[in-house]
Write a structure and sequence with these properties.
By secondary structure, the protein is α/β, with parallel strands linked by helices. It has ten helices and ten strands. The strands form two sheets. Strands 1-2-6-3-7-10-8-9 form an eight-stranded mixed beta sheet, sandwiched between helices. It is globular, with a radius of gyration of 18 Å. The model has no long low-confidence stretch (mean pLDDT about 95).
Length: about 300
Amino acid sequence: MEGIKYTYGETIKAIDRLMLYYPFVEKITIGNSVMGKEIPALKIGTGNTQVCYSGAFHANEWITVPVLLRFAEEFAAAAAAGESLYGVDGRWLYQQVSCYLIPLLNPDGVDLVTGGLTEGSYYEQAKAIAAAYPEIPFPDGWKANIDGVDLNLQFPADWELAKEIKFSQGYRSPAPRDYVGVAPLTAPESRAIYEFTMAHDFSLILAYHTQGEVIYWKYKDLEPPHSRQIADYFGQVSGYTVEETPYASGNAGYKDWFILQYDRPGYTIEAGYGENPLPIEDFPDIYRRNTGILTGGMTQILQFL
């Protein structure tokens, strides 16, 4: 893995390899990016309890892609062999839960940051957008989709307030980060995960990001049943702190909307520390600290249903 950057092409290769070894893993296309790339999801498990883990909302947080891919591989291997998945019987878990993983929600943006996109009209468009924000390095500082819309500021959970806050910070038009778009769910990638979520019955969701080694667990004053207990468990197994989302970034996110819509546990996992994009050398430690969260997302919710 050393030196690998998870471009869209590398991600699809990894998914294809996984399905070759474990044909019971299901691949689903949840939608398409601005540039037309298919956004893949993986389904592992046959149980009635459904959970959804997603990553790479933000382009320069692409290290979350291999976190979810590695977990998918380990879950599939444990299920196939009837072995332990971090202390839990893999085959039993496979029968109890349907785990959906969306490792790469923002393929165009990730390609921009990782070098998978270095020319053409979309690259030039992004470069022109970035030129208006010289304080944000290009392309390393890019978080948005290729149109300059922040995918995690696109959900119908006080979107207007998010707009007011981000406009006051100077992000009033397409930008490398923090632009909310012209309306909720106008970015095709955000709409894809929104519609995918609406079409399922998820008991719990995890949204992976990479800044701060923090777990955000509530939306405003909404505290879904058992969400604090699960958050505390996640904190114990990872060493991350459990906090309330800061006001300036506490609206219009996927986790915010999920809690508002369903009153079920939803978490933003900030799985890393440092300046994005984090180097791939950070991956082993990040993954080690998240195995308990990824496994516990299933075992913990099963306890409370």
